[in-house]
Amino acid sequence: MTGDVSVLRWFRPRCDDGDGRDDDCGSGQKTVTIVTTVTEEYKLWKGLSNMIGCSTMLTEKERYDLLMTKLIDAMRNSDWDTISSLITLNARIMAVGLEAVYRILPDEYKFSIPTECHTHNGDHIPTVRKYVRQARKYAPIEKRIPVEIIGLPEIEVYRAGEESLDKAAYRISWTTSTDVARWFYDRAVARLQPKRHIYKGIIKPEKIIWYTDGRQEKEVMQYNSVKNIVELDR
User: Fold this and answer.
1) pLDDT, averaged across the chain
2) Domain residue ranges in the chain
């Protein structure tokens, strides 16, 4: 890793002041806090073990170093699929690796990798959100949304968020399902998390960054394209 340390520094530290938009923080080291459950840790380890062919449990630092070594090798070989697989295994890899690799990615991967990172809890990472916001221009509409909604003039979307009404449009994750939005609202209540609001808005299909139902959440990714936002009662 010694000869490749510069690869890990190809990014400008970012911060989030809570308004849904990323802001420069000047110089300094970026800190990423990783919170995982035992199940998530096991999944991360299994993914890493399969990738590197290792059967012995490693420390977090050792796993990170191995992942970065593999990522750097994949970058040198322009192995985009391996990069895509590696970069979603670990939150630190998302934060550092995505910034490092983004400028050399082919356009199709500038769409697929950031959006995949976002679905793997990358919505908490400013670097991921930054590149998700740019992803729409790198994929045709047929790849971004289901064909059945392409021709619609607009669709209704919903969100259960902590933010105030005026900041909701800057949040990436919305859903086409009121039931999903209410589920996130109820989950926050059950976990004694900060109070959430249920918002409703409309968006033109061509403004959607990506629609995915991989987690059965009917998720719509967008940025500042949801209009006529109102708050609904639970």
Assistant:
1) 82
2) 2-138, 141-232
